[in-house]
Amino acid sequence: MGMLYKKLLRFTYALEHNAVFGSIKRGLLLLTPVLIVGAVALMLRNLPVPAFHAWISQAAGGQLHMALGFIYDATIGIMSLGLLCGISYSYAETFPEADRTFCLVAVMAALGSFFVLFCVRGDGGFDFASLGAVSMFGAILCSIGATALLRALSRYLPACFRSYSAGTDVQFQVSVSLIVPLALCLMFFTLLSLGVKGLFGVENISEMLSGGMMALFANVPGELGKGILFVLLTDLLWLFGIHGGNVMEPVALAYFAPLDENPMAIVCKTFVDNFALIGGSGATLCLLLALLLCSRSSENRRLAWCSLPFGIFNMNEPLVFGLPVILNPILFLPFLAVPVVSMLIAYLATACGFMPVVTSSVTWTTPVPLSGLAISGSINGALVQLVILAAGTLIYIPFVRLAERMQQARTQIDLEDLRRVYWAENRAASGSRYNFLERPGNIGGVAKMVVEQLHRDIRAGVIPLKYQPQVDESGRVCGAEALLRWNFHGTPLEPPLVITLAQEGGIFDQLTDCILDLAAAEAVRFREALKRPFTVSVNISAQEANNAPFIRRVAKRVDEAGLAGSFCLEVTEDTALEHYGGIAENLRYLSEHGIMTAIDDFSMGQTSLKYLQENSFHFVKLDGALVRQLLDSPRSQDIVRAIVGLGEDLHFKVVAEYVENERLKDVLAGLGCALFQGYLYSPAIPADELVEYVRSRDQGKGRD
Questions:
Q1: What does the pLDDT read at residue 685?
Q2: In 3-state terms, what secondary structure has residue 39?
Q3: Residue 539 main-chain phi, psi, to 5 deg
Q4: pTM of the model
């Protein structure tokens, strides 16, 4: 079983990292807000409540009903068009040489190929219905095919066939160079469309698919066999992005007798829709319940709750596209199996006489179990639907758990890739590093997920902090530094990476405010619990130290909490402070309000000395690299001694971090350092543990 899981994980991971599959998935996810808006409009237009339907049809002279129709047409009605644009742009971004101009031209190429293949009729007219769900598979094929062909033509055509324009506008030059490749790409798909329509004698490919399905059913015996094949093919088409309901509609009309023609027939279109396809193709109402009952993913649970109002009324587009179910290798099997099992349960219940034969139809939005009651004329019809819901949910549950487990494993792999790239680029110190949110592929995807979760945690005020004690020469704990210890889905992320992503995501200021609020609240708690002075330090950037409104907000927060004299801001910017002209004044303002300041990672370099030239600080924290070399480098000791001497002249205390043993502490103390912080005393610990730690050391000092 473990071997099978590993193989499946490798397979799904390969799919996630495949440029084609990843682009399709991103295109599907982009449709989610569009589908939700369209589903709301559709639900309001088709609620199975006669009084409401009559009101909305007459309200404002019918204008409200018409407006909802417009919203539907502008969303779900053109979903293939939206999918096409999203996939083609995403796929074009995966090419290393592609710029924004190429991506936009790729979208135009995909649109043109889609129109000639699926929208233009034989008589030259335009089939607007093809812009909806019926042509989703075509949109996927055209997005990938046209983009790949455009790239190949732009790269491999002889230079004489790729015209370049003079001028200084680079984007214009790139656009002009794509004229011939774009023309050849559209010509190829035009010829392909003419060939398909001429060879098969059809108006569009959907019509060709329907004809093929009709041929399959000709040799299938019995109504049950045809019913099972019908739901299998409908769901299979949906799994590949083809609107199964539309393609299979001619089959239903041909092989499922109307209710009034054969009253003894068990399987009819109404029977299939209300028992086999509960909630839509794949019996996704069962999937929805499985997510609500057993999902451990907060994202999936939010999607499920968002999809619930639509699922009740048999609209599953938000769930199918948002999860997504399409092209999902884990949910592939239950999506096919649950409708078949559901049909068998309903057929056996009817065949044995427990449930009457379906004799009437209902509006397609009628929810379970009301639809079962109405179409069978018996309470047993509703009971059968409830049994189907329970059975289908039980089938979906293990696959939901497996999908989430594998998604978590893939996310962990992507996180490791993100961390590896971050530290590699950090060490390289290249000017073009980072910009993770703009990167295509899984690096950019997981970076966006991290920023989104971080933003939610900031709004909820649940950013975890830990505190590393600061100890004086006598061994007394006189303060602690608040350190960010945030994790993503149980995986701790290094604070520099979190800060980098917060800056890229535009939420760094919010993150800092949240940390300051939490640290100030804990500082009050420390003071009340310890009954003595205790300083809490928080890191800020030089840019924030230069921001007068920010500084005044901090001062107000400290004043309101009564923390004057016990709160310290550490400036951690590695850029020279000379670029920020307002820092000196802001530091004086903080000092006037009883807020201490410190320089972090200080050495004797030019940048560090600039910090002291125009600004006054209460503390200077030695650079960690300097402290680590101290025992083996007499020169490093001389530098520390010089910094301590400078502190005596400029009235600041020297703090040593990364103090990991007694020998290093003794050397630092001999050089004149005032405060010590490091694993010799304690790692960063939660607030509750810090209080107990300080109390235990205070009691130990008392015994001494």
A1: 94
A2: helix
A3: -80, 135
A4: 0.71
